[in-house]
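Researcher: Re-running this chain for the archive, since the previous output was lost when a drive failed. Same request as before.
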Amino acid sequence: MTEPTTTSQPQSAKDANPKGASPSPWLRFALCLVMIALSGTLFYFVGNRLVSQIYYTKANSAFKGNYNWIAVQYLKKAIDYQPNDILFWRKLADTYYTIGEKEASIQGAFIYADKARKAFLKANQLNSLDAAAVIGLAKSEGRLQQLYPYLYPDSSNNPYDPLPYFASAIKLKPNGIPYHFALARYLNQSGREQELLHTAQSLARMYPGVYGLLKREPLWSTEVHTAVKRGLQEAISEKIAVKEAHRSLSYALADEQNWSKATYHFKEALSYQREISDRDYIQLGRLYLNDDLTEESIVSFIKALTISPDKEKSLGAITNIFDKRNHQNAFSSFYSEIDTHFFLSPEMHIIAAKKFFDLKQLDKARGILTAVNENRPNGDAYYWLARIAEIEKDWDAMEINIQKATVLEPTNKHYKNVFLQLRKRLGKDKARGI
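Model: Regenerated structure tokens:
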């Protein structure tokens, strides 16, 4: 029987690396080196980022605590680890700017304004589209422009001009309200009145709710008020935040005591609201009252109390509006209405009594307070009865009432002090050897 013949393989084929065999030791060593290098590089960048963030967090804490110099040191360390982080440079610039604002000497203020400018400039170089860096650059440039004449009074050429930076920042964020505010403050400080008025008008047009904020600024004036009104009217015409524009225009007209127009615009603002709040009705009632529309004001105030979640607080706000002598009859009518249509708490009765006291209607105040005490003795009611007796120079009644207030509220130091001062004035403590 013939055996099957086998074809022998060449030796070189046996030595060839078959499929699935493990790589050679040299290849494994090379792969390990690559992995180590990549891991090292990744650890370097992640580690640097982590350390820099730790320093930045510490800097923020120091800055909030007004430890500005410590904040500077932490920020410099953060930048050492991440030199191209725009956030770190901006924060360093802000810190320098804050230090400069608190510097007593002009030279010191100038030095730190310049440091702030350079740090903002670095941030701007890292990202030219970062509006916050550009507005910071504008503010520090403006500060340097302001300080320069004091250090160099003989120089007629001030090298600093922040306006191009303001223009760039606003171009990057045309609706950035803080940027327009910063520009307005600079224009006011540098005496550029016409440009200030134009900026104020633009602000009011873009953001009608700015009226209350601008009023609190040092730049506020009759001329700015007029410019803001023009901006609000433009906003209404162009249908830009119409509700806020009508409301702000109402406030502006109320400041001029133009009550009828102020009422009109406030009612227009309310027409854009789905729900009208108790505060809205209170403001509307205020406008009616100042326009001598007493019945309309009472209706509005009653609507406010009807929907108010805190009727005592709302009543207190309403009573404060009746602050003129010619409001005596109006307040009396209002109190009669709410006393008829509402179940008033003792506190609400006392609030009304205080207003009658302020309006010099002492008999009405006394009647309300006496009724409160007949229902349930109240320390506050007795205190105000004592105040009425003081005005009428009825010292016996004052002593009795303030003593009752003190007994009902023994921890009230004010009541006790009034009582002791009265007894001293009457000579009773001396007589008892106190």
